[in-house]
């Protein structure tokens, strides 16, 4: 019986399982940019004079007629398009669950002037590629989402006056041999679809192997997983990514200016003028500077808010 038991134990022995290692999965929605770029991508912006020139502000919703502003007030809330993956600009605070950031502060000030209450907001989460469609289909009242004012975009949507000037730069893991735009040639670079950052990257580094993603937080993931060599975007966005990982750094000179405006449906001129009145107020009363110091001080001392340019 003892022998039989030993034999049974031996025959029932299971060896150690084999272990295999695989590449981490890519985030959903990742796709390579087209590799056939024999015809250079158009430079961001086009030519329409000064694209940041907007409509002169009117703060009194009764003069001249303001159908869009009146309808928003009757609804009781401002519908804002943004995302929750742009740390420092618009993100969900994990401690409070609240959506916060520099762009959110701008939206709150518009709501303050509309209702006397900065909390009268409803958020619609958008990818960068969805911003124009959301405005054209009136799914949102405004887009406050690091939206660069360009001549091309102004053909489809309206913009407020400029409220921030970002600079496109490069984000890498500390110790990377990439020290700026000149080293992006032939490298794997992450960028979000539907952005001026993608257009400029195709101009500056046409031989780069470009991986496009829906959200900037996806670029953080693939950089941390070493599936790309660099990320390029506005310094505001890159600062938000770097703030989440001490092993990342922003390098190199600016690849170009990115003037931000609030996106508005093209036909809603009264809302453009109302938003511009809010932007004039926050430039004057220190609200803009307070918000910069709260969210973006890692970019350096607070600059002077960009001066508005008006076309009328």
TrEMBL record:
Q: What is this protein called?
A: ABC transporter substrate-binding protein
Species source reads: Rhodococcus oxybenzonivorans
Q: Where is this region: Disordered?
A: 1-70
What residues form the membrane-spanning segments?
A: none
Q: Which domain of life is it from?
A: Bacteria
- Cite the record's Polar residues compositional bias ranges: 1-21
Q: Which residues form a coiled coil?
A: none
Give the record's GO CC terms.
extracellular region; outer membrane-bounded periplasmic space
**UniProt GO BP:** amino acid transport
Q: Quick check: keyword Electron transport in the entry? A: no
The alphabetized UniProt keywords are: Signal, Transport
Q: The Solute-binding protein family 3/N-terminal domain covers which part of the protein?
A: 77-299
Transport recorded as keyword: yes
């Amino acid at each position: 019986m003892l022998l039989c038991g030993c034999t049974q134990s031996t025959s029932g022995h299971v060896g150690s399982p084999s272990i295999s290692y695989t590449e981490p999965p890519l985030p959903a929605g990742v796709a390579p940019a087209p590799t056939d770029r024999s015809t250079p991508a158009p430079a961001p912006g086009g030519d329409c004079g000064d694209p940041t020139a907007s409509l002169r502000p009117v703060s009194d919703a009764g003069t001249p007629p303001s159908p869009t502003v009146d309808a928003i007030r009757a609804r009781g809330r401002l519908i804002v398009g943004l995302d929750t993956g742009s740390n420092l600009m618009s993100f969900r605070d994990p401690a409070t669950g609240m959506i916060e950031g520099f762009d959110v502060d701008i939206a709150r000030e518009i709501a303050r002037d509309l209702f006397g209450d900065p909390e009268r907001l409803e958020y619609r989460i958008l990818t960068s590629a969805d911003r124009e469609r959301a405005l054209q289909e009136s799914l949102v009242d405004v887009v406050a989402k690091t939206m660069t004012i360009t001549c091309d975009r102004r053909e489809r949507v309206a913009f407020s006056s400029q409220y921030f000037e970002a600079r496109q730069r490069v984000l890498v893991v500390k110790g990377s041999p990439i020290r700026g735009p000149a080293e992006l040639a032939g490298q794997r670079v992450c960028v979000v679809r539907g952005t001026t950052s993608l257009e400029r990257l195709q101009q500056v580094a046409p031989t780069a192997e470009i991986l496009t993603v829906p959200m900037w937080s996806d670029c953080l993931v693939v950089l941390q997983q070493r599936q790309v060599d660099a990320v390029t975007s506005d310094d505001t966005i890159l600062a938000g990514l770097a703030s989440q990982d001490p092993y990342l750094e922003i390098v190199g000179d600016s690849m170009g200016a990115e003037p931000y405006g609030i996106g508005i449906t093209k036909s809603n001129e009264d809302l453009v003028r109302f938003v511009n009145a809010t932007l004039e107020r926050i430039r004057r009363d220190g609200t803009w500077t307070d918000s910069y110091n709260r969210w973006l001080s890692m970019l350096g001392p607070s600059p002077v808010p960009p001066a508005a340019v008006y076309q009328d």
